[in-house]
Amino acid sequence: MNCCSECFNSTYIKAIINSYKTKGNCDFCKSVDTYIYSPRELCINFSSFLEHYEVDRENGKPIIEQLKIDFPDLIFSSKINNEDLTTLLKSILDEDIESYTPLFEENISLKIKKDNSHYETIENLNNRWEEFSNEIKKINRFHIQNTIDLEKIKEIFSQEELHKSIPKGRVFFRGRISDENGFTPDLMNLPPPQKATAGRANPVGIPYLYIADQIKTTLYETRASLNDFVTIAEFQVIEELKILNLNNIEEYYDPIKASESESLTNFLIYLPFINKLKTELSKPNRRNDKELDYLPTQYLAEYIKYLGFDGVEYKSSLYSKGFNFAIFNGEKLNCNKVYVKEITDLDYKYSPL
């Protein structure tokens, strides 16, 4: 029996299957004329991954259900049902299936959830952001000592799935509320260092360029009101950018590949902390914010810059379909043109408390 690249969402597994360029029909998801592969050839890949699981009769779930809970849409494709997925996984582990029989017959969960040392680490990290914020604001400003392990974070940020290359020529947008005459390009570009105020990512005196993926995103980010005028600036990339992509980080991280490099455990442990960084970066600046409030994200943005990235991408908190970028070196983009738009309609949505 053959599986195929359409059986999986894991980019790592798909690449393995596609690299052999053997076409045929799949016995599991029923795709036709697609790249096929013998399941047992994937045994080494999945055995490394399944070593992170153990029997957990009280809190676990059946194997396929638990994998989908822990890594939704990251491993298997929705084209294949649970029954066929079970058969596929058993076929993958065929030569060593006896070693994994308990995982198929009992409920299972990630070992990390039952390991006391890991559990304590995860629980601590759920509160670690507050400890980190307190240390950098009140105790150690430049040399953090006790609250975060930068080497572990570096290991996660080094995963290629989180890297995005933005080519020369790509256009981004920035907006500022103005009058109907708008601002000139120089006023929409980076301010000089002596006029650079602190932002979520940049410290005072070190300007970063904050841009958005589309005009609608930047209109939301300006928080313009009805009949306000907004100056929109278009910025074109003039030198390729290497970006750390924090959008839906769970979706870009391949657990099968990570398990082979032994970085899966670190990812699971540090994910709450990284998600907190992503959330804090996406918050809009507010008038009553204090510069001290920005220190944690500024520190980590500086670390991301130190790792060789040109910027960081994060989801807009004001427009659910939009993305923002903090670019560390604004000289790699050029402000091509500016124009003014008037806000003629607002669409407010709300939810019950």
Structure, explained:
This protein has 2 domains: 3-112, no CATH class; 160-342, no CATH class. Strands 6-10-11-12-8 form a 5-stranded mixed sheet. The termini are far apart. Helix content is 37%, strand content 18%. It has 353 residues and is an alpha+beta fold. A hairpin with a 7-residue loop joins strand 11 and strand 12. The chain is globular, with a radius of gyration of 24 Å.
Instruction: Please state the oligomeric state of the protein chains shown.
Output: single chain
Neighbour order of strands in the largest sheet: 6-10-11-12-8
Determine the structural class based on helices, strands and strand pairing.
alpha+beta
The low-confidence parts are none
**Overall mean confidence score, pLDDT:** 87
Major beta sheet summary: 5 strands, mixed
N-end to C-end Cα span: 53 Å
Give the amount of beta strand, in percent.
Answer: 15-25%
Number of helices: 13
Number of domains: 2
What are the key terms here?
353 residues, alpha+beta, 2 domains, globular
Q: Mind sketching the topology for me?
A:
Blueprint: E1 3-4, H1 11-19, E2 23-24, E3 34-37, H2 43-50, E4 53-55, H3 63-70, H4 82-92, H5 97-105, E5 108-110, H6 116-138, H7 150-157, E6 163-166, E7 171-178, H8 185-188, E8 209-212, H9 215-222, E9 229-237, E10 241-245, H10 249-252, H11 255-260, H12 264-282, H13 295-306, E11 311-315, E12 323-327, E13 333-342
Parallel strand pairs: 10-11
Antiparallel strand pairs: 1-3, 2-3, 4-5, 6-10, 7-9, 8-12, 9-13, 11-12
Helix pairs in contact: 6-12, 7-12
